User: Fold these one by one.
Assistant:
Number 1:
Amino acid sequence: MEYTVGQRWVSHADAQLGLGIVVDIDGRRVTLSFPAVDEERTYAIDTAPLTRLRFKEGDHVATIDGVELLVTGVIEDRGLLLYRGTDHHDEEVVISELELNAFVQLTTPQQRLLNGHFDRNDDFALRVATLDHLDRLQRSDARGLMGSRTSLLTHQVYIANEVGKRHSPRVLLADEVGLGKTIEAGMIIQQQLLTGRSQRVLVMVPESLLHQWLVEMLRRFNLRFALFDAERLAEADGDNPFESEQLILCASDLFQGQDTLKAAALAAPWDLVVVDEAHHLAWSESGSGEDYQLVETLAARSRGLLLLTATPEQVGQASHFARLRLLDPSRFHSLEAFQAEEQGYRALSAQVEALQANEIPADLPEDVDTTEGADDIIKQLLDRHGTGRVLFRNTRAAVRGFPERHLHRYPLTPPEQYTHAVVDVDEKLHPERPFIDDSWLGFDPRVNWLEEKLKSLRPQKVLVICASADTAVALEHHLQMRAGIRSSAFYEGLTILERDRAAAYFADDENGAQTLVCSEIGSEGRNFQFAHHLILFDLPLNPDLLEQRIGRLDRIGQQSDVEIHVPYLEGTAQEVLLDWFDKGVNLFTDSCSAGNMIFERFKDRLLPELNQRSGEFDALIADTQTFTASTREELREGRDRLLELNSCKPSVAEPVIEQILADEQADTLQDYLESLCDSFGVEHEFHSEQCLILRPTEHMLTGHFPHLGEEGTTVTFSRDIALAREDLRFLTWEHPMLVEAMDMVHSTELGNAAIATLKLKGIPAGTMLLETVYTVNCVAPRELQVERFLPLSPMRLLVDARGKDLAELLPHQRLNDRVEKVKKPTALAIIKQVHDDVDAKMRLASAQAEERLAGILGAAEATMREELGAELARLEALRAVNPSIRDEELDHLRHRIEECAIHIQHANLQMQALRLIITT
């Protein structure tokens, strides 16, 4: 064998290595690089188990850029092969063998079978099942939305479905507090990644929310973001650190005064940038802050942009305009023009209210067809509404389903130990902090009160939140060791796994903790709505933090009223703040999305009162009440009904939710996973209803099984169980374990060749049947989403001795249940005898499959042109009345239609599996 650097060879001892490249020849040794597995192997030249890869005219080859060529000629030049061929545009291309894709199917099922390499019939069945499931998932309208560990709320699913399917989405998510903007963003990110529309995502959040986002993305969406902080960046090498990861999470203020970091972030390519708490970005007509300028530049260079804020437009119209300006600066170019447009939107909102009351307003826009019914007129107005495509805002009033909130106040006498003079407001609100040990537990009356209250509430679950981790740890230890109350602590010093265990212990109904004692992070990112008692051991100064604390229990799906218990020390800053929140803002019993704005308005008058209540405090309460009432009224009056309708369309979301739930309620996924485990040698054991324990074994087919830990993994198929038990993996068809395991089956040879015998009445013994499975092979960029119109489309044929297809008479499952295993020596003898017959039947089967393929491709192109063409026509018509539809969006849709058509026309058949069956 003669080797030349750059040649492509195949290891027939280990086909899983993919296509190798000769990189070095040294005396009697040759070294090959295998890019598919990122390995190098060195062989003795005389005994190397290598075969030279040579394609011939008529073969299909794929390049490293994903371009598929039909080979029309082969030239050898100084030991290297050059392939001449035509691409999917029918243009002639010449490539070197160096440009061949390393991920190539090196042997067909027919070659394996006829060479005596075949698998168990169970593996064959697994392969067929995998192809069927992949095909079904590619066709699903719920694709990209199945895998989230969420409650599938209508407004969240609608937004994720609407925005996640867009090319380069640029939207503002502005739902009120408690409606789940982070979840909506996660669902959009997950769908963009799963469907290939995005690959690189940058998320920027306030530092206090870093852990919440990290946990939410991992636990709810299986998205493993890399956390970039000053420490990580200091350890980075000379290359751009922002190009080292695909998914990056960082604090918004990480770049403050750091020009080098800014340049690095701006130099990296991003498909999607996400900014939480976007109302903090400073902008005015006269200038903008450093943070705004950075996001503005990132927004201009990134295709997609998600901005999150709970601050309503009425709180600051200029700030609202500044956020919209980031999404589309050409559309939102002038604050004055925007304010004029807003008046028109208010008029439309009033018209919608009239239409909902079955009244047809006389002043409807001229281009609206008033002969239609009220519902149809509203639909026309929705399409024409100015910010409806870029802004989504759901309100608690519109969504509904929230519980009532009740405040219970418990005045306690301050102990002598807390009467020393303290100037710092923080220490006045949290008087235990100056103590370097836990001695305060012995005299703080709130501790004894907490013991008695928890005992009186038994066995009901109680969530306790306090400001600091030290306070939470001390309280939990006291309750557990001194008071005999089952409890668990949840604070920032724990690892993510430890937090999961603490939350799971709290969620366990039978043997779990009665109470979970949390530091401030307990008000972030976790769902404890199975409890309805909340004890606030202290109060935060920030109203938004208080709303977040209450929001852990006050959520959609809460079955009971939320009981809020607040112990406080009389005559101290604690009572002053409680009175202001309760009597001034009414924040305990009525959610307020403008809480922080109200605090900023009265902060200069409130803070001195915390140091020493004065005779002015009653006036402060009265003024706060008046301002809060007017603010709430303004928010109610300013509610944009048209925008709310456009932010949640149940008729669109509910069929998607029904499809997701139908997939989950069937046993199909659990049955399929157990088949996977059997084939790959993974042990599976019953844990409880809809839950399994998976463990690796020493006899696994491959060195690892995706996302299976060394100690094993407990999984559940139930969404309800997963929401209550965050320590369990929630397996869906889109969980990375399933996605990667299915890819392992699809992309390898497992189960693609088999041999069996079958007893059939009326058919002579020794009759040969050939069961073949083909799929459609369409090589196209993922972002085109061609599989939406042209999925795998498995074609099964069962060819008899005369070439007749018996697939309908003998369905796969029925056949699978009846076939029997053939011993290896017998199988090899059979194969030797029927070699020529198999070739003949394969030609017949392939001819029939090719006939079917023509119809499939024609139907796929027609469906694609009909669906995308209708969407294009709709958006082109609306472009005239709704400038929020971007030219880029229309251009991409036109490009997608033409590119999809080209790729569909050049799709071909791929044989996926072959089974030889001999009747007995």
Note: The longest strand covers residues 908-919.
Number 2:
Amino acid sequence: MKNNFVCIVLFWFTILGYTQTKISGHIIDSKENSIAYATIRVLNSSVITTSDQQGKFTLQKTNKNTIIEVSALGYATKIIKPDTDTITIVLQQSTEKLDEVIVSAQKREETLVNTAIAVTSIDSKKVKATRTWDLSGLTAIIPNYLYQELGVGFQQVQSIRGVQVFSENPAVATYIDDVNNLDILANGFVLTDIERIEVLRGPQGTLFGRNAMGGVVNITTKKPTNTTSGYAELGFGNLNLNRHSVGLKTPIIKNKLFFGFSGIFQDRDGYWRNDASLALVPNTSLDGETIGDERNLYGNLFLKWLATERLNATLNIKAQRDWSNASGFFVSQPNDQIAFEQPDKIYLSRLASHKRNIINTSFVVKYNAPTLALTSISTYQNIGLSFENVDFSDGAFYHSFTESSFGEKLPNQEVWSQEIRVNSTNDSPLQYTAGAYGFTQVAYEPSTNIALQPSTNEVSTVFGLSPDTSTIFTNKGNNHGIAFFGEMSYKITNQFTITAGLRYDYEKRESTFNGFGDRLFSNGITTENQGPITLDGTYDALSPKLALSFAPTEHSNLYISYNRGFRAGGINAQRLPEGVNETFDPEYSNNYEIGYKINTLENKLRIGAAIFYIDWTDLQFFNQIALGTFARENVGDATSMGIEIEASAIPIKRLQIDASFGLTNTEYKDFILNRDRVVSFDPVIIEENREDISGNDLSNTPSHTLFLGAQYTIPIHKKTNATLRGEFRNIGKYYTDIQNTLEQPNYSLLNAKATFDFGKYSVAFWGQNLADEVYLSYGNADTSFGRNVRTGIPMTYGTSFSIKF
């Protein structure tokens, strides 16, 4: 018994790491000058420290195979695997070497070159240099990526390799600091104080689950460390732009408790002028009003506790408020011809308003044993939305509505989720990631919780309503899901690695809703002609992954992979004719890929390339099942194939060049739509119409994307530098609609930026779309009954002033 007790004690002492050792080091530059306040971090752990004023540091060694990342302002990030407990690390200036890139694409930290996935990582320096203030800034930087917006950042369409969304469930999963935005209404966070943005291209269902059919956008913001630091920035530009931000990170208790905060206020006028004389209901008092104004107030708070050298917990709260009294939410220009001829004009009878409040909360606990890491991620998301007087050019105004008046705040959407994950952290040939994930969601999707108010008595007659009567649509969703996943990689030899993974998702969706005319609102009185109905559906899916990679050298990798993604099915939240399915099935995407990555020329050149083929099946789209009634059905399949190339280089000192290119060929298959038309109102005459779009290109999929960026740093004085940057983005021709009639021709954007750094002070001057190119930021996905579009933002320019401490 005594021997057993001793064995148990020794076992737990080993697991808890009481036999740890420390690494002592000195960080210097190429001239052997000490580098103070460098950040030293152990990968896949919570261990982090900073160098002192003499460049010295001491770091806990988590296991014999510890890998550390070393970064410092003005120097290229370096990844090393210490072979002794006393080391000297030499950092090269960032104008001489490229950063060694770490990604968490496979839910564990590893070098970019060793990751058998097509993934682009944009670090904080590049986010700032490219002025990526929101996800629209990723277009063309990420090959075969396109961002489109329905007037506000929280209603957006992201397309990767042609895979995109036609519903409230995203096709590209977006994570920000471990919180998954299950609904597209949860997107639109203002980007500030970013650590890195990773974009995984192609389905990622095994590790990320539902709604990662096209890929994943994984955003990480900066966390507090042992060093007190902060910044403040003031930004101004045309369209009355004001963008002002602050941030502070500091230890409350050295090596134990840390606090971090960043916040931003952004205010900008719209770029359209209203011509109300040409609106459906003329209102000349609104002539000349700007449309698309928006204000955003965002805050991001961290509290991190290192309970022990192996156990840590992080509480993160993000909150954002968006509002406007001249909103661009869902409003549009009447057709593409008018939009291209007069891109700064819009024709509205009323000015819309919107308010959205969103809170993302996460509590992450990590425990690092010598050979594995345990992670618990608990999240809560709350979204409130209201809108009024949305004029969508179809003869009606749309408002949020709950009880008694237009523009009432909808009930809050709420999402709870929990993920528990275990990762191996040793240097064994076998590496693994396994876990479980569950969520519950209460959803009030904005397009099915509205008051539809006809704009004229004539339109009321068409809708079958009495004058001044609005119909009220309501829909509450209760969704629950659970998943189990695992992925293993085995190093067959020093060069060959095989990876296999599998995920099982189960989801139950419930919807309570009413139908057209069931609930009416007139003169302040609500009439309920028929009560709501409740339906549910269950869906499950297996998402496998298989990859084989070959590493000819330590800095290169050739891989071949298969990944599967899925998007859950759902319920048509409206009363449908008898015999029509109220539910629809999931979508699936299967991705086959060959890729190659290399870092060469002493880390002065980095290249990545991929060839892919995607088989997208059971697409969900709206079919007409009765006059004026549409239901989402699984109407067809599609394929997408193409190539992607990315490169970064420092050909000469102080000059960095970045480039990316994507080429895509797509096609709808066996895709037939029902689209009956009303050709006469008196009497009502209906023309049967079936549209076969098989053979068409996928909508919102440019034939190619091209990005070229170059920046040159000029030393002026000891602590004074000037950085000049230019960018060229070219987006190939594509159609916004599945019918391939609404075309966005090939277009190019020219951007430039000049930054002057004076020690801790900085001044920047920037310009976007300097050629004032006219292009569409949105167009109908279905042009059977209209061609509503939105033009993209014209030339903008501005300046910013910042200080760091």
Note: Residues 5-19 have pLDDT under 50 and may be disordered.
Number 3:
Amino acid sequence: MSKKNIDWEDEFDFEEKKSDNKDLLRFVGRVLSNWYWFVLCGILGLAFAFLYLRYTIPVYKIHAKLLVSDDKKGGGMLSSSALGDLSGLMGAKNSVDNEVEVLRTADLMREMVLSEKAYIGYFNKGTVHSVPVVEAPFHVELLTNPDSIERAFTLQVEPADEETIVLSNADTLFHARRDEPFALRGVGLLKITTGRVSFLADYGFRVAPVRTVAATFNNRLSVEVTNKNVSTIDLIFEYTSQKRGEQLLTTLIDKYVEGNLHDKNVIADSTLAFISARLRKITEELAGVEDRISGYKKNAQLADISEQSKILLQNSADFTRNLAEVETQLAALDAISIYLRDNTNLRVVPSAVIQQDVGFNALIQRYNELVLQRERLLLANTEDNPLVQNITAQIAGVRQDMIANVASTRRQLELAKQGQQQLANSVSSQINQVPTIERGYIDLARLQQIKQAQYIFLQEKWEETAIGRTANVSNSKVIDSPKAEKEPFSPKRKVIYVLGLVLGLVFPIVVLYLRDLLNVRVQGMEDVERLNLLPILGVIAHSDESDQVVVTKTSRSPIAEQFRAMRTNLEFALNGGKRILFTSSMSGEGKSYVALNLAISLALLDKKVLLMELDLRKPSVTTKLGLPAGKGFSHYVVRSEMQVGEIIMPSGVHENVDLIQAGAIPPNPAELLIHPRAKELMETLSQCYDYILMDAPPVGMVTDAQLLSRYVDCCLYLVRQGYTYKEQIRIPNDLVATNKIKPIQLVVNDVQAKGGYYSNYGYGYGYGYGYGDYGEVNKKRKWWQF
């Protein structure tokens, strides 16, 4: 192994060293080494996805499409018919955007909920949760007003006997008789009609406030105009039952159509009633005039009228017709004015009674819309409600505008009447020359023409309005009836399975990441390389053997080969030296174990090796070798008369390995290590042995190792996987940087190979052997030991 050239005087830089693909290979290695966790978690993820799909209630989408007669876009259903010109008599023009807002209103949804009695739902109680059902073996009927439901209530129905059933939930338990009303607090009066009582088990029902159910359904309803070029509206309703969802959406559309026709018919009926009242009055007046003419002719015995009378009558008829039209319009204006000034009862204003300008028609349309909107709000609110008061204020403002418009129109008609009257007076002066009897007849005939013109005008308007009402159809048509999708919208089976598998595979990655993030100990060679700049002399794998000596003459195990590889690397590290110091950051990192086996490995080269137990505070080599305690280093330093030979003893593990014990534990071990006799001892031993291995205390705890560094040629610093703290790896680098101990090389101990990118690090740091190569073949593990 080549020695790294390091300038120990330079300040150390502990930045992470990376290769281009090292992180990727490390990640792949971690995944491959823990493949069974990924397989297990993937299976668990799929199992959880299956359970989720098994016990989750599916939600289906129900689609429907409406075609709306939008006058802005054309294509209305009446546009090509003979009655198309009369469609404007009944109210406002249609707009797709307006109809979308109508379909989204809570009032419309409330009507659907009341019609379908959707505030009562049934369910089948299962092992995990309750499943909604469309039909149950019993029927629940609410006998009181649905608005009396104040809170949601869920009850399970069970048979007690042939006539009695038990209603229960987590807080309530009571009995009720079949087909007989019973009161439920916060709900109202209910009656349950059942078939065979034996079928009631595991069924129940829910009662919820109408407003809550309507709000829930509104959230499930989507109303959109997907194509702005056509007047179609797409409706999407989400529900747990396909059949029930189609039924609910169909009812919603029916209620929308009914409401649309109702608004149109209200205006038409009001107009017809107004015209009918005027027709009755005009008919009576016309009949009276005709009776007067008949009596006049009879009394005057008139047979023919002279030619002059015909000419005068013809001229008078023209002016009379004009006056009649003005009088009719004035009468209509007076009626409308009286109608508008009556603010005790807000009603819709008849439309198309008189020929008005576009502005007045727009005011009537706006006024009628506000009145209808107020009536709808009063169905669920009082007149003190701010929304109702706001609408009432708007109605009052529009009414004032209409009254002002009527007054202005009346003034114009009065001026026109004066002009016609002047012309009529001119003709009357000529008629004065006609005999008195003929003149009287002309007056009566003129009055008859006025009343007859009024009658014809009102009769025409009545017929137009009646035809228009008959032609009233909804401004929307169902072109695609509600249909539910075959597959549920939620949950999506494929997505859930993929998500379950992905989460199952991600979970081990997260656990591994958090484990590495929260672990403060060295977990592998990557941690040593990342936090350290010193050379690594060797790597010792984890050993399951209880014997402390793993290196023998005949040993071919992988761990023995690792010690041989470290022995080879040590020859280059010593560079002719022979004294080696073993230390670490703390106790328990394997200094004595590595020193003992390395000594045997060196002795196998037929070298004289001395192992010195210099951990004077807590010696362990003697115990590991099973030797009795005797005289050692502390005795030699303290007793000046003692010779070196008295403290050297055979180790018992190899004939070329001797041992110097620590001796008696002294009160001042640091002082003994720098005693002159200690230096003398080191020089004497250097002349007698080829290698001297010193087992020192941890440098991270006491200063003994720093004191012994003056006697050695190389310091081996032990790092133990899964035991040494990551921050402690900086200690040997600091020692070298501050010239306290040098040179230092690391020995990584107890490395557990787990496969992947670093699977062979445990067997020689690139120079050792993997299982099944040149070392002993391990026994094959059983399948349950993977």
Note: The first strand starts at residue 60 and ends at 68.
